[in-house]
Amino acid sequence: MKLIQIEHKQTKHKNALHYILDAWDEALASGVEDDTLATAALFTALSALVDNHGEEAVSALTERLAKRIEKGEFSVGHITH
C-alpha cells in the first residue's frame, strides 16, 4: 500500500474515532452508563462488520480478540480527544 493511502486511512480512522468519542461523551453526560454504551457499541460494530464482511470473517476476528485483550492492547484507559 502506498504511503499516501496509509496516511489517508489513518486520518479516516482518527476522524471516525473522534465522532465515536464525542457521541460517547454526550451519552455519558445524558446519564447512559458506560457498560450500556459498551454493549451497544459492540453490537453495532459487530453488526456492521458482519454486514460488510460476513459471519465467518467476523467470527475469525473475534477469536483473535481474546489474546489481544489478555496482552493489554485495550487497557489504555479513556482515550482523550
Summarize the structure.
This protein starts with a helix and ends in an 11-residue tail after the last helix. It folds into two domains: 32 residues; 44 residues, no CATH class.
Ordered list of secondary-structure elements with their pairings:
Blueprint: H1 3-29, H2 34-53, H3 55-70
Helix pairs in contact: 2-3
Written account of the structure:
With 81 residues, the chain is mainly α. The protein folds into two domains: 1-32; 33-76, no CATH class. The chain is built from three helices and no strands. The protein has helices spanning 3-29, 34-53, 55-70. Helix 2 (34-53) packs across helix 3. The longest helix is centred in the first third of the chain and has 27 residues, at 3-29. The radius of gyration is 15 Å and the shape is globular. The two termini are 28 Å apart. The model has no long low-confidence stretch (mean pLDDT 89).
Mean of residue pLDDT?
89
Count every helix, treating DSSP H or I runs of 4 or more residues as helices.
3
Radius of gyration: 15 Å
| Element pattern in H and E | HHH
User: Which geometry do the CA atoms define?
Assistant: globular
Rounded to the nearest angstrom, the distance between the terminal CA atoms is 28 Å
Number of domains: 2
Q: How many individual β-strands?
A: 0
Main sheet record = none
Structural class: mainly alpha
Estimate what percentage of residues fall within beta strands. Answer: under 5%
Proportion of residues in helical segments: over 70%
- Which parts are unreliable, with pLDDT below 50 for 5 consecutive residues or more? none
